[in-house]
Q: What sequence folds into this?
């Protein structure tokens, strides 16, 4: 087995006397697409932040391969209307890139005509594409995408997931993403991690969809006409394979924003 | 037609406007208006301590503002209270503490109004030197952290992942604000300092196509406000500091009539 790009081992995160993450372990291999799913408040974004080094876990280990280049796409980029910034300037904020490099990166995500546009005027889908293009500039080995299709219409979501798969094939980068959209994301992913503070189940999309834990968490969503799901209050983790976490509640350090 | 003190006031005011404009753009983008107010209010505590300890008031103001900025930085990381609550606590505690300290100094009469609303007509050669020196240091520092600061403005976590040293840049910006607040106090007074950050920057937003352009335009709008305010103050015999702010507000209103550039 090749060296993992990223390995999380028994990660626990405690905030406000509550477990946000409990004994979460996972590894990301080069070139694979891993999707984190789970109800609201399941700790998906928190897990990404630990993986990125933005939050420090209360216990557990984060191992990144040496010199790992990460392209990050945050959950929501709110561009203030008082902030006059063109797409080109935005892409160059933390690195020096030539015009050709910018154009190539935008062409990869089908947004080449947006180079001179004002960031504040982009639609939801356009902004997501620009963010994705910007992440590509760093020639990432790992793309970390937090809800990449948020605020995008259904057709746009299908296109974006297709694009993410395409980018993986073209650049050979691994993808770790968070998603709410069960149906669409299943087709575009190699492995699914179903998270609800702890890992409820994990595996290929086909395997996970048949998993009892998954059905308990997302029962409503599986019904064909119900797009909205809710966390099953009866879910008591009785059958979950997770072990309790050894962190004492209330020991958590403050979040670093 | 103008007296010497008016020329001095104009030179000092222009120096302050040139640095307040570019910094003000970040105050607007980062939604730090209340933060600016807090620093400004704590300046009075600096004045009082300066007199108590026999230190140059301007230096004391800088130090107190810096301390408040640092305190705030660490309190915000604790996340025990929301930011605006913290700001409110610090701001008003520092202002009141300053007023109480001043009341204790019976032997010393401080012209409180001069600190609250500015005393630009009383600036001398040494003040002007201080203003331009501080302004140069502040602008130099701002230039140094310009790009990372823009990145943080857009998205802090994204900047962090991309290698920006967010805490260092934010601390530097706080220091810079403390420095500038100290020189602005002389011109518009500590109650009106935030207005010189915000009004010029907000006025030129719709005319600007890049962050740099907005910073430059804001500096120019500040210069126009200072000149217009002093001119009005001379002819109408109104207090100089508030007149400058009124001029800035008029300029803001006027520029809203200009169609936005795309």
A:
């Amino acid at each position: 087995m090749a060296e993992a790009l990223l390995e999380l081992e028994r990660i626990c995160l405690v905030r406000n006397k509550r477990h946000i993450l409990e004994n979460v372990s996972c590894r990301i291999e080069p070139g694979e697409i891993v999707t984190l799913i789970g109800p609201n408040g399941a700790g998906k974004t928190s897990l990404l932040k630990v993986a990125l080094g933005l939050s420090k876990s209360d216990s557990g280990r984060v191992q990144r391969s040496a010199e790992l280049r990460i392209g990050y796409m945050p959950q929501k980029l709110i561009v203030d209307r008082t902030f006059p910034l063109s797409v080109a300037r935005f892409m160059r904020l933390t690195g020096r890139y030539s015009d050709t490099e910018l154009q190539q990166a935008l062409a990869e995500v089908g947004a080449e005509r947006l180079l001179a546009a004002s960031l504040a005027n982009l639609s939801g889908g356009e902004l997501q594409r620009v963010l994705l293009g910007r992440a590509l500039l760093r020639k990432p080995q790992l793309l970390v995408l937090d809800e990449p299709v948020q605020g995008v219409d259904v057709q746009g979501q299908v296109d974006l997931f297709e694009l993410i798969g395409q980018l993986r094939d073209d650049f050979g980068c691994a993808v770790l993403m968070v998603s709410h959209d069960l149906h669409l994301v299943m087709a575009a992913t190699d492995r699914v991690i179903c998270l609800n503070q702890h890992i409820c189940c994990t595996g290929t999309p086909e395997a996970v969809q048949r998993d009892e834990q998954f059905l308990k968490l997302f029962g409503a969503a599986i019904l064909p006409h119900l797009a909205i799901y809710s966390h099953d209050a009866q879910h008591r983790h009785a059958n979950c394979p997770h072990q309790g976490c050894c962190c004492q509640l209330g020991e958590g350090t403050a979040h670093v924003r | 037609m103008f007296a010497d003190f008016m020329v001095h006031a104009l030179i000092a005011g222009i120096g302050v406007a040139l640095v307040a404009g570019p910094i003000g753009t970040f105050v607007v983008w980062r939604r730090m208006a209340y933060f600016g107010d807090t620093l400004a209010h704590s300046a009075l505590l600096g004045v009082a301590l300066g007199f108590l300890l026999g230190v140059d008031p301007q230096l004391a103001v800088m130090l107190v503002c810096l301390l408040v900025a640092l305190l705030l930085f660490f309190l915000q990381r604790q996340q025990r209270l929301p930011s605006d609550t913290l700001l409110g606590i610090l701001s008003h505690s520092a202002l009141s503490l300053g007023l109480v300290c001043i009341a204790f100094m019976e032997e010393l009469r401080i012209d409180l109004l001069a600190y609250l609303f500015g005393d630009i007509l009383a600036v001398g050669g040494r003040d002007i030197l201080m203003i331009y020196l501080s302004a140069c240091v502040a602008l130099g520092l701002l230039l140094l952290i310009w790009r990372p600061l823009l990145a943080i403005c857009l998205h802090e976590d994204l900047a962090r992942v991309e290698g920006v040293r967010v805490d260092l840049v934010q601390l530097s910006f706080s220091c810079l604000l403390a420095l500038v607040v100290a020189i602005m106090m002389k011109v518009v007074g500590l109650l009106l300092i935030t207005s010189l950050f915000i009004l010029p920057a907000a006025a030129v937003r719709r005319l600007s196509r890049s962050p740099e352009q907005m910073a430059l335009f804001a500096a120019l709008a500040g210069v126009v406000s200072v000149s217009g305010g002093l001119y009005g103050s001379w002819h109408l015999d109104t207090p100089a500091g508030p007149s400058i702010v009124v001029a800035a507000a008029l300029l803001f209103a006027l520029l809203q009539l200009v169609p936005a550039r795309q």
Summary: The mean pLDDT of chain A is 80. The domain at 6-72+140-210 of chain A is CATH 3.40.50.300 (Rossmann fold). Helices of chain A lie at 44-52, 87-91, 99-108, 124-136, 154-171, 182-187, 205-210, 212-222.
